[in-house]
Amino acid sequence: MALPPLSSTRCLLPLSLGLFQAALLLFFALCVTYDEHSASPTNPEDAERAAKQLHSTFPFFQDIQVMLVVGLGMLLAFLPRYGLSALTHNFLLLNVSAQWALVLQGLLHRLQHGKALLGLRSMLSAEFAAVTVLISAGAVLGRTSPCQLLAMALCEVPVYVASEWLIVTRLGVLDVGGTITIHIFACYFGLGVSKVLFGNEKPKVHPKETPTPRSDLLALLGALILWVFWPSFVAVLCQPGDTQHRAILHTLLALSGSAITTVLISILLESDGKLSAAHLQNGSLAGGVAIGVVADMHIPPAAALALGSLSSLLCILGFQFLTPLLAKKLALQDHCGIHNLHGLPGVLGAVASIVAALVAPGDGSDTGGHRQAWWQAAGLAVALGGSLLAGMLVGAALRLPCLAPPPEPLCFEDALYFKLKEWVENPPVPGSSTEGAPLAMKECV
């Protein structure tokens, strides 16, 4: 079957990527230098401190790389004919968004003598900015072109940088694992984009959206990779020692609670008592989303376990009841269910941080517990409201004629973007020498 590529994408995408990379190459050549305190300190004590920091941070950084490139990419490949595109677009958006974030964060936070300082910490912060784009893209996955996704990334990263600065630096919100600044922000930004981009068009199940056992297996493997490495994502920015140790333990407990609750609730909700692959792929990770904002706080282990269990319950109930309701009442399209995995558990975690600040005054802050609780609530409101508004504005921009979406019959189709080869079996002719011949290759472009 021949699927013609989009003409606008065919010309605009390489042009956009080429201009973007050339501009950033020029910026790095003129305005970026290494952070000497972390890269090549001349003082022996500083050198030893930098080496210890590198050895303690880089393994976490590698874990996060595996999460984003492999785990999240495979999780998005639940669409049977869109796996290559999901993995590749995820990989492309990660790199584009991280480079763009390095520029913006360097100019805003790490400017010294007219040069932006580059170190492992700045790379880590840029990856966190890129995570928001990867999450938001899940709401419109399959029905948007690469040009639209690229434009969305270029718009979202500056908004995230400003939002994170306001929430963490100005309001003093405690959020070591990014529950508010990353998950809630990314979720409602993506939903805002989806709502305006697709308008009041009633969501319809596309024939190519239905997962197959093979695509569900691939997505479940991705979820398991995310599950294993999630503690690194939460604990990497914690102070080494007891605080980091506590964050890791709390995350492990929350994830474990999510896993068990997901299996239990999925069996109870399905009419035939069988497990749902979609529930496993998402509900088992919900605890990692919710625990991030309180992971380093002095909460009891039972609270972390309960938070993980409750977050997975919300996630699965969201898939079962809330997603169909939002689709029917608001015509909201959320192809990957980011509201159920990132939005609902994120809000739950933010509420838990408000409660934790009230019952443990002064924990992690020099202000009273009640005041910190107000800051946590303000951070939640800023992340949710600001991201939703910004996403709607970006969604309107993505409707420009030059950013054409794929035609509806060609949505969720790898062959629109990839030159593929399919195995086809040559029917053997009885008695001929070709019987049992190897499979032949058929090109599909």
Architecture overview:
- The chain has 14 helices and five strands.
- With 445 residues, the protein is mostly helical.
- The strands form two sheets. The chain has a three-stranded mixed β-sheet.
- Helix 6 packs antiparallel against helix 7 (179-198), helix 7 runs antiparallel to helix 13 (338-359) and helix 7 runs parallel beside helix 14.
- It is globular and about 60 Å long.
Q: What's the rounded overall pLDDT mean?
A: 89
Strand content: under 5%
Beginning-to-end CA distance, first to last residue: 7 Å
Shape: globular
Largest sheet: 3 strands, mixed
Helix content: 55-70%
**Secondary-structure element series:** HEHHHEEHHHHHHHHHHEE
What's the helix count? 14
Instruction: Detail the poorly predicted runs.
Output: 1-6, 423-429, 431-445
Strand count: 5
Q: Main sheet: which strands, in order across? A: 1-3-2
Radius of gyration: 23 Å
Structural class: mainly alpha
How are the elements arranged and paired?
Blueprint: H1 7-31, E1 32-34, H2 36-39, H3 44-75, H4 83-109, E2 111-112, E3 115-118, H5 120-137, H6 146-170, H7 179-198, H8 213-235, H9 242-269, H10 277-283, H11 286-291, H12 301-330, H13 338-359, H14 369-397, E4 420-424, E5 440-444
Parallel strand pairs: 1-3
Antiparallel strand pairs: 2-3, 4-5
Helix pairs in contact: 3-4, 3-5, 3-8, 4-5, 4-6, 5-6, 5-7, 6-7, 6-14, 7-13, 7-14, 8-9, 8-10, 9-12, 12-13, 13-14
